Amino acid sequence: xxxxxxxxxxxxxxxxxxxxxxxxxxxxxxxxxxxxxxxxxxxxxxxxxxxxxxxxxxxxxxxxxxxxxxxxxxxxxxxxxxxxxxxxxxxxxxxxxxxxxxxxxxxxxxxxxxxxxxxxxxxxxxxxxxxxxxxxxxxxxxxxxxxxxxxxxxxxxxxxxxxxxxxxxxxxxxxxxxxxxxxxxxxxxxxxxxxxxxxxxxxxxxxxxxxxxxxxxxxxxxxxxxxxxxxxxxxxxxxxxxxxxxxxxxxxxxxxxxxxxxxxxxxxxxxxxxxxxxxxxxxxxxxxxxxxxxxxxxxxxxxxxxxxxxxxxxxxxxxxxxxxxxxxxxxxxxxxxxxxxxxxxxxxxxxxxxxxxxxxxxxxxxxxxxxxxxxxxxxxxxxxxxxxxxxxxxxxxxxxxxxxxxxxxxxxxxxxxxxxxxxxxxxxxxxxxxxxxxxxxxxxxxxxxxxxxxxxxxxxxxxxxxxxxxxxxxxxxxxxxxxxxxxxxxxxxxxxxxxxxx
Length: 502
Prior knowledge:
The chain is an all-alpha fold and 502 residues long. The chain has helices spanning 3-22, 34-39, 46-57, 60-73, 80-105, 110-118, 121-152, 159-175, 178-206, 209-215, 228-244, 246-253, 258-267, 269-287, 297-303, 308-316, 319-357, 363-387, 390-404, 408-411, 422-442, 462-483; strands spanning 448-453, 456-461. A two-stranded antiparallel ribbon has the order 1-2. Helix 6 packs antiparallel against helix 7 (121-152), helix 8 (159-175) packs antiparallel against helix 18 and helix 9 crosses helix 14. The protein is globular, with a radius of gyration of 22 Å.
């Protein structure tokens, strides 16, 4: 244990804890209303939204896992760059439309939209359950990132993780979405400081980027034969899935206007630059031979390639800066975990509790249920990590990406047309979920599936293959339903509700 690193880490963690509780008085409002507690009153401006979405989309697990993938598997880990570049044009086109109809009707979740658009409680329930299932392992994986950096400080028990999540649960319960919005400002500033320092100082100590690239095994510098299609489908599938994750929708619905969303979609690619630099840390770890250093052997034995970034900072930086870096990663776990738990709570409260158990509950009752569920979600994720092998959380996270993309026909296509019938969408969802889960399970929960086509095999992201089956089923059954004159439910939205003029 290094006392200097621990004190720096503890000081920064204490700072964000105070901010989390102070946030309840920031832009004071009635937090006994779900719009205020779960969406920050839908009035965050450009800069707050920028920090919130940066904290929401670029998580602690990203900071740990992306360099670890590059460190362990090589160039395939850089799929995050085209994936991140595709996100924001998609968001720029789609989200103003979604924000407009959500503001008009007071939608808090994607399931609220589906319920109104298709007049189908069953379809809305399936969308809500998919979102909750997909987001739970995502929260659990934030704990993995935090566990790695706390382990790098010398703590290997579960007590620090439990204390950290108890604090997170307390200030999220008290302040709602305002807490991660305020903390995200600190988190993002720390991340930028750490990344900029790393990409300047480490290459200088290693003799420049030429020496770093020369030290990387050739097979890790380029995609290997057969990886190209996997790389492309993983990038495309991940970009589309991110739009559909509940925490993305929660973050963007908190924006105060369409202009705020459009400005953010223009500004957020700056995070992609940071992401490219973060991925490059994997190559820096290879060039630094941290895996062969006996000082870090215990860390690699415990955490595998995920220990590459902590080892890199311990190797090249003084203790106080390692403490700053580890605090940035740990805080980077708290922000998305808070937003994700709020998003899951919003889904349960609006689309399960209110829809099926208490249709006439008051705004206060609704907010109280959401606060309680947010606690249960966090501690459920915590128990998952404490009681089960880490590999299960990783496998479920891969499944989560496959599952959430199956909501695309109802949510994303539903924003533009209602030609698809609700029952066809339900059956398509079943086909997509079943086939996607089977593909992943058949490959020992790998995200890639080898699809034999003619005399060749296309190995690609299983989520894309499952989505194609889902869409084909929905299209064919919708055409059949239209031909038979099947009745549609009432559409509670109007075309003018989607207007994006601000």
